[in-house]
Every structure is written in C-alpha cells, then in structure tokens.
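Revision sheet: structure tokens.
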Amino acid sequence: MPELPEVEALAADLGERLIGRTIRRVDVPSIAALKTFDPPVDALHGTAFTAVGRRGKHLVLSVDSGLHLVVHLARSGWVRWRDAAPSPTAGRGRGPLAARIVLERAEGDERVGGDGVDLTEQATQKRLAIHVVAHPDQVLSIATLGPEPLDPAFTEERFAGILAHAGRAQIKGVLRDQRRIAGIGNAYSDEILHAARMSPFHPASMPADDVHRLYEALQQVLGEAVERARGVTVSSLKAEKRQGMRVHGRKGEACPVCGDAVRQVIYADSTFEYCATCQTGGKPLADRVLSRLGVRR
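Predicted:
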C-alpha cells in the first residue's frame, strides 16, 4: 500500500505534470471505485488542474472550478502516467483500470486522443476509492484523520498524548490507525518499530524514555523515506520503497543491525516483520494464524 512517503512523491510528480493542464474527460470503468455522485465526475471535464497535494494516504487533485478529485489507492492501487493516446478500455468493471484522466493536447499537437493518468488496481478485492467533492474534508476518511507526523506541530509532547490516550493498545496498531496519526501503514510501522528497537506488541502507554526513542525513530524513518522518494518518478516509486525497507517484506533475510533472521507474523489478511534480537529480547512473537493450525516455528 502506498504510504505517506510514496503518496507525497506521487503528488509532487503529478503536480509537475498536471498543473495548468485541462481535463478532456474522466472515464471511470470501475463504477465501484467512484464513491460520490454529486457533483458528477463529468463536472471535471473542461477544468484545469491548479494543485496536487496529499492528506494522509490520499491524493488531492484540485481544479479551477473549486472541485477536488480525491483518490485513495488502498492496498493495490497505483497511478500510471500515460504519454500516448489511450487504448480502448476492456469494458465497465473489467481489468485493472479503475479510472482514466484524459488531458487536452497542447495547441498544434495533432495526435489522436490525449495523454494523462490511469488509476489502476491489481487485486480481486477492489478498494481503490475516488471522490469528487467541493472540499476534501467532505471525504470521511480525510475528515477523521489524525495529525500529520512530519508537520512541525506534531511535537513529541503531542505524540506522547496520543500514546497515553491509546492506553494498553498494541503500538503497531496505534501507529497504523489513521484517526490517531495520518499516513503510516503496515510497512513504515514495521520500520519505525525496528528503528526504535521496540516490539510491535508493546503497549502504547509507555515511559517517557520509550516515547522519546519511538518519536525519534518515527521522525527519522519517515523523513529519510520522503527524501529518498523525492524526485523519483511514478514508475520507479514501488521499487524505491522496497529497496529502502530494512525489515518489512524481508522475512528470512539478515537484520542489517544485528544479523539475526528477520521474522514474520501473519494476522488476518496481512503480515508484519520484525527482528527478535533487536526488538523482543530474542524472543520470537507468537504467530496466531500458525498457532491455530498447529504449526511450530
């Protein structure tokens, strides 16, 4: 899933390509992806992009009529810039294409069709969400967002208050909860906890020294990831994210800090990775899914 650093880079890359460009049309083959109906998506036709930004994990594309196209890419969604004229879609609801933004060509460009942006989703369960709204806060998942962790106003004191309010909740889930802190998902919560040398199951309410260590790790991991992604093109962002991970997605590989094997825990429909030596005093965490199946690790 694209998280804060990747969505920040996507917004910057798309901003350079889209601001000032006029929308010829917006096609939405996957009608389930469109979560609003008033104003209609046709209201974007003929408008020009004025800004591209980010709120949490959402892309916010603004146009000169005052409307905003808000996109949440969910777990398997992505953005693809298209230089050539689009090929015909496979039909409503078929294939990975969720939506297509076709731009007007510059004066004198006689090529058929137009360049633009495709929103795609390579998954059986379609969760990519598109909203056309007068204000981004009309999207519930934006209106309920917690603070941005790289905002100057996100101080260690404010972070400590969030953790204290979460009480005995596991810190892994608290970091991922968008209502508490915006933009952090499964991958970067793994990376932050590894950098802080803290168990994913540690209670959120913790001593001040632990709060400080975790806050410093959060700022460092996210800040470095944003810097790595800065200037990276849309087509290369996924590979850049994978390359930057130290434990997430690296089950069985050597921890870059201590050399122990990175371990994995499976839960629900997701997983997380950690280093037992660095984070849990050498004790492997129980894998609840494997335990139910009678599998020993």
